[in-house]
Amino acid sequence: MENQGLRIDRIRHSLAHLLAMAVLKKFPDAKLGIGPIIENGFYYDFVITEERGTNADSRGRTLSETDVPQIEETMREFISQNLEFTGEKVTPKEAKKIFKDQPFKLELIEDFVKEEKELTIYRTCPSTTYNLQPTTCFFDLCRGGHVENTSEINPDAFKLTKIAGAYWKGNEKNPQLLRIYGVAFETKKELDAHLAFLEEARRRDHKRLGIELDLFTFSDLVGSGLPLWTPKGTILRNILDDLVWKLRKERGYQQVDIPHIAKKELYERSGHWQKFGDELFKITTREGREFALKPMNCPHHIQIYRRKQFSYRELPQRYASTTKVYRDEQTGELSGLSRVRAITQDDAHVFCRNAQVKEEILKIWEIVTEFYALAGFNLTVRLSLHDPNRPEEYLGSPEIWQDAEEKLREIIQEKGADASEGIGEAAFYGPKIDFMARDSLGREWQVATIQLDMNLPERFDLTCVNEKGEHERIVMLHAAIMGSIERYLSILIEHFAGAFPFWLAPVQVTILPVSEKFQEYAKDILTQLREADIRAELDDSNETLGKRIRESELRKIPYLLVVGEREVASDTIAVRERGKGDTGTMDIDVFLERISH
RNA sequence: GCCGGCGUAGCUCAGCGGUAGAGCGAUGCUUUUGUAAAGCAUGGGUCAGGUGUUCGAAUCACCUCGCCGGCUCCA
Description:
single chain; Threonyl-tRNA Synthetase, Chain A, domain 2; 35% helix; globular; RNA-binding
């Protein structure tokens, strides 16, 4: 019996070869990159140039979307020919001969020789002949892992999905290749399920839903990556932020407020000027002084701490600000709310003694757990460590790092959390405990983060006066609960498909009078709801009741209250719940009671 | 930033060398509505912006801006 996972991998790998064959059939001069398997499928990289005419301005023909169905069809033809994949070991010389027209393959051969790896070449020989060098067979440099015969591949269980650019060997200094992606499964049923998942993800896309639900907008004049928040969207932001603040306040945090720019010198001292480089939005004043929009809040909070000499008795000092940071992301990296240039962080910094670190981290951990439980997220934990092979990317000595990382590891152990460890995932000033949330579609997102920082206190000489009257070095904790409100909202919108739970819905209740005659009663209900702090609206527009119900359902309002003759007579409301239809008539007090928990 | 695909009314889109269209939304009137779309009428566009080609450009070319999918990056 074959292992399921291996079998599907072999199918995907084989399809990558067939993809290359199909592309070569259409573009015999295509240069091949690599074609590995990936999650749910495979891809293959190519350079495709086809001379078109001989005049001076002839341009290389490149593959376009319209070629994809044809390539897919060719792949199916190959599958139906019951082709075999046969591998044999070759010498570098033999390999180079076979791939003499394939510069990328030649480079790989060189790499393999350097690494003293064995060279294997796989051969597939389709019955339809076409111009493949050196014979009609297709050869690929490959360590194996194919199906034995294409008859093992279900021709209806794969699909080419998209074309994209990709750098050779993933390095942006290398030439860019054309990458064709495909998805593949053992059965058509699995493929259909996957395509349905993609469709569902597309349906929930926050960029689409956010505009539809009128939560945010973008303006070409304001600029890309700079979302503008509408009244409804702002309600969402404030609800979330208030919640975080409430949890923080209970644990001794204090709000502080800071400007959005600072002098170059601040960021030089913190290390951000060097570390962020081109990502800083820089400003030169008329007097020629250099400022930057803040890329992080820690240096500002640090300066608040530095305003006076603290006694150990006054520690920890816990400062929180919900404020924006600005990063000049490359335009191609921007995407909806997930990746923006103006990022609202719910940022806090704890200045404390070494011995207080554990307790403070546990407090933040509590906030994180409580906050995410509200949206129904289960969190997983990752300990993000520095990469010892790239010391130039981090501040501070190896000893400091080891110490800090060990401390976090202990806390995670004590919490009994099942944490993974991510080498190279640390911040440049310290290791982190990161929290990941799994959304309703099963996708994982990094959300909250707790960072232990022993470096910035060093750089800014942060101390307290201890029991002996000495200046004692303190440590800093960076704690963001949502991380970025923009990003967290993008996750929430998709998680709930825009149907926010009652506590979060920008509009919680819409009142629908059956006709104009019941407007007064409806207004009376509206007042009562608003007095009870319910975010309620009245829809008395001149439309049929059915139409107004439809519109409110599409706006994903949690409750609709229909009031007409019967309700006026009995001083009640008819309650319709989102997605559930009419749930009956009740007194308004009963309704208020019902929604209060 | 790079590769590819796009940009037409508030939204979704058609038109693709002969001078601007539909549905929804908006506005007005009629209707006074009982749980997912009442009827009629009206308005609405420097066809993203710019420069060319052409007798003529939404349509073709080039540049800029913006969006989407990837790549690179994400402290």
